[in-house]
Automatic annotation (TrEMBL):
SUPFAM superfamilies: SufE/NifU. The active site is at 64 (cysteine persulfide intermediate). Belongs to the SufE family. InterPro entries: Cysteine_desulfurase_CsdE, Fe-S_metab-assoc_dom. Residues 24-145 form the Fe-S metabolism associated domain. This is Sulfur acceptor protein CsdE. It comes from the Bacteria.
């Protein structure tokens, strides 16, 4: 399912050209944490930087080691578009994993997505430090809140 990119605040390849199944296959080939670490850095490089005017305080996420921004918009077709950035490469890669799983889905589909299970399936959850895992949980919480905001209507 391809979503139109016209009207997107900040387009990126996640959830479209890079999908969840591809991520799973890629990370399943990684035998060591260093390989997963490299994959996260590669994902981070594919996520375009947000322009400074989009890095607003209202979308900055607290609870992360690095500064991170995560915004969203409901598209006219009823699908959610998420966008974000981080000053840290690993955090930006973790954000890219989340975007892959939720981009271009309806609020209901996003609400039903178990993002922590995806991190476990990719072999990432058990490798993250406590503070970094808390940051990931803050990002997941923001995504879930966005979905809930639009499913209440």
């Amino acid at each position: 399912m391809t979503q139109p990119t016209k009207g997107l605040t900040a387009p990126h390849p996640f959830g479209q050209e890079i999908n969840q199944q591809q991520l799973i296959e890629t990370f399943n080939q990684c035998r060591q944490w260093e390989d997963r670490y490299r994959q996260l850095i590669l994902l981070a490089k594919k996520l375009p930087a947000l322009s400074d005017n989009l890095k607003q305080q209202d979308i900055e996420i607290s609870g992360c080691e690095n500064r991170v921004w995560l915004g969203y918009q409901l598209m006219p077709n009823g699908y959610l578009h998420f966008y974000g950035d981080s000053e840290g490469r690993i955090v930006k890669g973790l954000l890219a994993v989340i975007l892959t799983a939720v981009e271009g889905k309806t609020p209901k589909q996003v609400s039903e997505t178990n993002l922590l299970a995806l991190f476990h399936q990719l072999g990432l959850e058990q490798q993250l430090s406590g503070s970094r895992l808390n940051g990931v949980k803050s990002l997941i919480h923001t995504v879930q809140n966005a979905a809930e905001h639009y499913t209440k209507d």
